[in-house]
Write a structure and sequence with these properties.
Blueprint lengths: L1 E2 L1 H9 L5 E3 L24 H10 L3 H8 L37 H12 L5 H9 L4 E5 L7 E4 H17 L7 E5 L4 H12 L3 E5 L5 H10 L2 E7 L2 H14 L7 E2 L3 E2 L2 E4 L7 H11 L2 E4 H7 L16 E6 L9 E5 L3
Length: 332
């Protein structure tokens, strides 16, 4: 998936968020914005030297982080990148090109960045400033190619907000999003946020018990977004093996999960998905189907979002213990 440079101007500004650790049922008091700083520490002896060597990135780590060829067998297409014959990422499709020194749109975009209070506001402003420019191109990660301009993307995000509002998501509620990067992921994430909720995100390849923990720990409000049928089948298999009901997706605040949205069909028919729903004992819906049937969110249903509201909860990998939920607020 690639997002145009125009979208990135606004999206990058939202990364300067206030950061706190998430505690279920408790919102910690405001703290000053935290900057991420990497400090180097001198190695003092041989023991520390060996430790430093052991913690260095492997070639496999570098391949994943920096785009080299990886030997891993990935389950999901978002973890692979098409490459040219020379080994570079395939950037053959032209995205928006802007002359940052002279294009008058650049100053307008800087103004948008400076006046935003939350990310969902971005789409309406960009739809007004540059409606016909390409906003989003995803040729490989979804069930079908997705190619949207800013006007279309604004409508899609508003329709996504209706999907989640109809499922009961509103200001102060969280939704677990267990899936990989794709255009659908972006639509889900911003739809949750426009409805007033916060996404609690983790990749689909995380261990099943870790995904269950994240749903519980994030106080997800009866709704989980899942990558697709393959991950759903893993959840079903794990629940059967461990004797868990409702796929093990539950928490004290909202009880068992009520609805699971599949981001992707992965070539499964309606009949296939109905069988999975019966096996799981949980209502299963396809996000794209709900999106197609939805109307843009009515303005009367759209909450006001300020700097003190949670935008998203990003979970760590949990390699040294339970995953930690890091709350990012709309404070830019």
């Amino acid at each position: 998936m690639r997002i145009s440079s125009l979208a990135l101007v606004g999206l990058i500004s939202t990364l300067f968020c206030e950061v706190q650790s998430f505690v279920p049922g408790h919102l910690a008091p405001q703290t000053k914005p935290t900057a991420f700083v990497v400090k180097s520490t001198p190695v003092k002896d041989d023991t520390e030297t060996e430790t430093a060597k052991a913690s260095a990135m492997t070639s496999e780590d570098e391949a994943v982080l920096f785009g080299g060829q990886s030997s891993s067998n990935f389950d999901y297409p978002s973890q692979r990148m098409n490459r040219s014959a020379g080994g570079q990422p395939d950037n053959s499709v032209q995205l928006n090109s802007l002359d940052y020194a002279s294009d008058p749109l650049i100053n307008k975009l800087r103004t948008v960045r400076d006046t935003l209070t939350n990310c969902p506001e971005l789409w309406a402003q960009l739809a007004d400033l540059c409606p016909e420019r390409r906003a989003l191109l995803d040729e490989h990660m979804c069930d079908e190619k997705i190619d949207l301009n800013f006007s279309q993307m604004n409508t899609v995000v508003q329709k996504s907000a209706t999907v989640f509002a109809d499922l009961g998501i509103q200001k102060g509620k969280n939704v677990a999003v267990l899936g990989e990067n794709s255009a659908r992921w972006l639509m889900v994430d911003h739809g949750i946020q426009m409805a007033g909720g916060a996404s609690a995100v983790r990749g689909a390849d995380a261990p099943i018990d870790e995904l269950l923990y994240i749903y519980e720990h994030s106080d997800s409000a009866g709704v989980a977004v899942v990558q697709g049928p393959r991950l759903l089948q893993k959840l079903i298999k794990h629940a059967k093996a461990t004797g868990l009901e409702n796929l093990g997706l539950q928490n004290d605040s909202y009880g068992p999960v009520k609805t699971i949205l599949l981001m992707h069909r992965e070539k499964k028919s309606d009949e296939d998905i109905a069988k999975l729903a019966a096996e799981a004992g949980v209502e299963i819906k396809v996000f794209g189907d709900l999106l197609d049937a939805a109307s843009p969110l009515d303005p009367s249903r759209r909450p006001s979002l300020g700097h003190s509201d949670i935008a998203t909860i990003v979970y760590t990998s949990g390699t040294t213990g339970r995953p930690k939920g890091v709350m990012l607020f709309w404070k830019l």
